[in-house]
């Protein structure tokens, strides 16, 4: 029997890409999975896998609290939170609008704050929980044209370390995963020249998949990682060494 059977798992931004891969992996392991999405979702595969889905803007505190309250009402507990919701609005700093800066920081950083704060009271009362935040290698290295995205993902890493220290005594592990170049809707917008340039910087010489990230999430959610907290795991094919 899977150790995840009947565990209650929230995956934010789970409609596609990395979030979808994580949600499906948990569902296949027998977990009760609820995903959030901001704009739209193709629900057929989720319905077939028994994955619940709900519209929720991670940057809106009241929406997040209402969503978390509904999950607790339906299931009585929350075992695992995967903070995955994110967006990009790339551009050089000289041309970056305040609106684009705010949108990225509000979803990628404030969204993690909103969901973590909303679930931690329930996890504290349970004396158990796992929180995994999806950052990016860009939050470690920086990247020209992505000042807002890099700042938001660096914030997630610092937030992870701080909350891990706050919640460790309550048997709640908080860790971070920093994906490298992964084949998603976000990266599909890059032109072939940029893609080839990125691929040359990957020692394993391949693009990552959603499953590569989902596998790391499953490990950090499992009993095998019980003595790991406050860490950032780069799943990047060796990009950041």
Could you write a compact summary of the structure shown?
This protein has 241 residues and is α/β, with parallel strands linked by helices.
Can you tell me about this structure?
The structure is a single chain. With 241 residues, the chain is an alpha/beta fold. The radius of gyration is 17 Å and the shape is globular. It has helices at 17-28, 44-49, 61-75, 98-126, 138-141, 147-167, 185-188, 192-200, 210-221, and strands at 8-11, 32-37, 52-55, 80-83, 129-134, 172-179, 232-235. Helices cover 46% and strands 15% of the residues. The mean pLDDT is 94. A seven-stranded parallel beta sheet has the order 3-2-1-4-5-6-7, with helices on both faces. The relative contact order is 0.14. Helix 1 (17-28) packs across helix 9 (210-221), helix 3 (61-75) packs parallel to helix 4 and helix 4 runs parallel beside helix 6 (147-167).
Tell me the layout of helices and strands:
Elements: E1 8-11, H1 17-28, E2 32-37, H2 44-49, E3 52-55, H3 61-75, E4 80-83, H4 98-126, E5 129-134, H5 138-141, H6 147-167, E6 172-179, H7 185-188, H8 192-200, H9 210-221, E7 232-235
Parallel strand pairs: 1-2, 1-4, 2-3, 4-5, 5-6, 6-7
Largest sheet: 7 strands, parallel
Shape: globular
Order of strands across the widest beta sheet? 3-2-1-4-5-6-7
Fraction of residues in helix: 40-55%
Mean pLDDT: 94
Q: Give me the count of strands.
A: 7
Percent of residues in β-strands: 5-15%
Helix tally?
9
Q: Rg from C-alpha positions?
A: 17 Å
Distance between the termini: 37 Å
**Class by alpha and beta content:** alpha/beta
Please trace the helix and strand order, writing H or E for each element.
EHEHEHEHEHHEHHHE
Q: Give the uncertain stretches in residue-range form.
A: none
């Amino acid at each position: 029997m899977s150790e995840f059977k009947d565990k209650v798992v929230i995956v934010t931004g789970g409609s596609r890409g990395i979030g979808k891969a994580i949600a499906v992996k948990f569902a296949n392991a027998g977990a009760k999975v609820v995903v959030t999405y901001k704009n739209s979702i193709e629900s057929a595969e989720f319905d077939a896998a028994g994955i619940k889905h709900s519209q929720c803007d991670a940057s809106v505190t009241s929406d997040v609290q209402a969503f978390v309250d509904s999950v607790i009402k339906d299931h009585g507990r929350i075992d695992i939170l995967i903070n995955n919701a994110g967006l990009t609005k790339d551009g050089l700093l000289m041309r970056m609008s305040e609106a684009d800066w705010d949108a990225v920081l509000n979803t990628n950083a404030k969204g993690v704050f909103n969901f973590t704060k909303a679930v931690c009271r329930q996890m504290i009362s349970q004396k158990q929980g796992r929180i995994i935040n999806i950052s990016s290698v860009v939050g470690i290295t920086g990247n020209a044209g992505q000042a807002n995205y890099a700042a938001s993902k660096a914030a997630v890493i610092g937030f992870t370390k701080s909350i891990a220290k706050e919640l460790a005594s309550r048997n709640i592990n908080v860790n971070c995963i920093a994906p490298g170049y992964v084949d998603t809707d976000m990266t599909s917008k890059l032109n072939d020249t940029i893609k080839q340039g990125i691929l040359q910087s990957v020692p394993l010489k391949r693009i990552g998949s959603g499953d590569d990230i989902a596998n790391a999430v499953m490990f950090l959610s499992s009993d095998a990682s019980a003595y790991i907290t406050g860490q950032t795991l780069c799943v990047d094919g060796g990009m950041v060494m």
